[in-house]
């Protein structure tokens, strides 16, 4: 009998197992196979894509080495070496986790976990039954097709299959201008591919959580790098030919390419795991319905990550796992707050957001104050040759921080400073008095705070 059985050893299951172990619980994991430990993020998502994005970033930096007195005569690109390095990182992380789980005596049972009852998980096909006081579902998500575009790993690729490429494509069509699409568009462009990026909406990153200003900056940079961006456009028809695909777009243009990459979303893995049999409720889109403590309609069964909402981020899954386990232990201080969930996009810029945009805050009735500071004049950004972008703070009339949006160097790291101020209820008065080292990128955050608190002396949106 276990205190906790976790179905899925991806980001949420992994973090949940470690956290439960720290808290003194006897815990077991169920995962499909030894090769899938770590889940989508590690094996086919954020870790390998960030490895490739780092390569793209280095190629981007290479273009400007002459400004630092480094005069090189060119380079060669090798997909084989890229794959070797990428797979080495993924394999090392995966094997380290398995070894660590064994070291702390957290067993991993391989197979598909199926709910037999509120306190029972059966591992198929072995039929082994694991009984537990609590169950945490962390089964993740899967790629989806788009109409008749069925991924075949030859002409049509999804983000699970793209890792099998042996050569850089000469030309690639990326369908979807969201976080996945803009990341791969940047990666392949920097590695020498011609890229056509197709987005249905009127801007890249068409999420209400991302300011339009960020979308404009990114579109401008991608175009400068040579990405062909087609907004308000769809794929009308396509066919295969001897060396790839021929696509006709809704703007009337015809594009030939080696392949089409689908970057159009994912679906929760909630089918065929016994939810109906035990009474765990799902919504119309297949997501498991949970409360603020990640508790399902069956009180001792919890869920985390991609299966709880369309916000599919590894750190969301990891944090929700800790929320669930804390609640199992009788605590109620940790709660789901998707508004305070950091969202970071890695493309030609890092783009990071948390909380409300200015438009969202106005729609909710706040009297909004905004402070914007550009990286253009930031000494550290200038030294690094990356003085593009901005820090944008959104606050209410009382000085409470409502949101932060950063575009530019290391935006994903910088965002945490503001996110934790928001979580702690510390507003502009606190931020405006903060001490930051010089030169640093972080100085832009305190400067943006003073822009709001004392009034703007640089550039900001004015009504």
What would you note in describing this structure?
There is one protein chain. The chain is α/β, with parallel strands linked by helices. It has 3 domains: 2-142 and 267-339, FAD/NAD(P)-binding domain; 156-264, 3-Layer(bba) Sandwich (FAD/NAD(P)-binding domain), CATH 3.50.50.60; 349-454, 2-Layer Sandwich (Enolase-like, domain 1). Helix content is 32%, strand content 24%. The chain is built from 13 helices and 22 strands. Strands 1, 2, 3, 4, 5, 6 and 17 form a 7-stranded mixed β-sheet that branches. The protein has a 5-stranded parallel β-sheet with strand order 8-15-9-10-11, with helices on one face. It has a 5-stranded antiparallel β-sheet with strand order 18-19-22-21-20. Strand 21 and strand 22 (401-408) form a beta hairpin. It is globular and about 65 Å long. The relative contact order is 0.11.
Mean pLDDT level: 95
Structural class category: alpha/beta
CATH topology call of the largest domain: FAD/NAD(P)-binding domain
CATH architecture level-2 label of the largest domain: 3-Layer(bba) Sandwich
Helix-strand layout with pairing:
Elements: E1 2-7, H1 11-22, E2 27-31, H2 39-44, H3 46-62, H4 79-103, E3 108-110, E4 112-117, E5 120-124, E6 128-137, E7 141-143, E8 156-157, E9 171-175, H5 179-190, E10 194-198, H6 212-225, E11 228-230, E12 235-241, E13 244-249, E14 254-257, E15 259-262, E16 266-268, H7 275-278, E17 301-303, H8 314-328, E18 343-346, E19 350-355, H9 358-363, E20 369-374, H10 379-384, E21 390-395, E22 401-408, H11 411-424, H12 428-432, H13 443-454
Parallel strand pairs: 1-2, 1-6, 2-3, 6-17, 8-15, 9-10, 9-15, 10-11
Antiparallel strand pairs: 4-5, 5-6, 7-16, 12-13, 13-14, 18-19, 19-22, 20-21, 21-22
Helix pairs in contact: 1-8, 3-4, 3-5
């Amino acid at each position: 009998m276990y205190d906790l059985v976790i179905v899925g050893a991806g980001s949420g299951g992994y973090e949940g197992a470690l956290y439960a172990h720290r808290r003194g619980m006897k815990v077991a994991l169920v995962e499909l196979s030894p090769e899938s430990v770590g889940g989508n993020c590690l094996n086919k998502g954020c870790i390998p894509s960030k490895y490739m994005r780092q390569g793209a970033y280095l190629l981007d930096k290479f273009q400007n080495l002459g400004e630092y007195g480094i005069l090189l005569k060119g380079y060669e690109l090798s997909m084989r070496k890229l794959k070797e390095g990428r797979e080495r990182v993924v394999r090392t992380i995966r094997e380290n986790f398995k070894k660590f789980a064994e070291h702390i005596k957290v067993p991993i049972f391989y197979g598909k976990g199926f709910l037999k009852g509120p306190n029972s998980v059966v591992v198929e096909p072995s039929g082994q039954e694991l009984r537990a006081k609590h169950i945490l579902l962390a089964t993740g998500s899967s790629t989806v097709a788009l109409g008749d575009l069925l991924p075949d790993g030859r002409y049509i690729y999804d983000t699970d299959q793209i890792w099998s490429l042996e050569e850089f494509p000469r030309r690639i069509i990326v369908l979807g201008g969201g976080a996945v699409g803009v990341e791969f568009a940047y990666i392949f462009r920097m590695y020498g591919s011609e890229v056509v990026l197709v987005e249905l909406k009127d801007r890249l990153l068409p999420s209400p959580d991302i300011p339009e200003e960020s979308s404009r900056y990114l579109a401008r940079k991608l175009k400068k790098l040579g990405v062909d961006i087609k907004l308000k456009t769809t794929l009308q028809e396509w066919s295969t030919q001897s060396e790839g695909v021929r696509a006709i777009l809704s703007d009337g243009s015809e594009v030939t390419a080696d392949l089409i990459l689908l970057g159009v979303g994912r679906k929760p893995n909630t089918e065929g795991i016994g939810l109906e049999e035990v009474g765990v409720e799902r919504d119309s889109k297949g997501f498991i319905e949970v409360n603020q403590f990640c508790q399902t309609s069956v009180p001792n069964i919890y869920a985390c990550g991609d299966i709880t909402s369309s916000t599919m981020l590894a750190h969301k899954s990891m944090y929700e796992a800790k929320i669930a386990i804390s609640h199992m232990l009788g605590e109620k201080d940790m709660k789901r707050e998707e508004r305070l969930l950091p969202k970071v996009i890695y493309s030609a810029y890092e783009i990071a957001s948390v909380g409300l945009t200015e438009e969202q805050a106005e729609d909710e009735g706040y009297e909004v104050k905004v402070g914007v500071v550009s990286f253009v004049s930031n000494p550290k950004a200038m030294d690094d040759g990356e003085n593009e972008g901005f820090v944008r703070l959104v606050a209410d009339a009382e000085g409470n921080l409502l949101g932060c949006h950063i575009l530019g160097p290391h935006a994903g790291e910088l965002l945490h400073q503001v996110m934790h101020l928001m979580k702690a209820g510390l507003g502009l008065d606190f931020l405006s008095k903060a001490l930051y080292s010089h030169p640093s990128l972080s100085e832009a955050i305190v400067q943006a705070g003073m822009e709001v608190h004392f009034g703007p002396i640089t550039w900001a949106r004015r009504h």
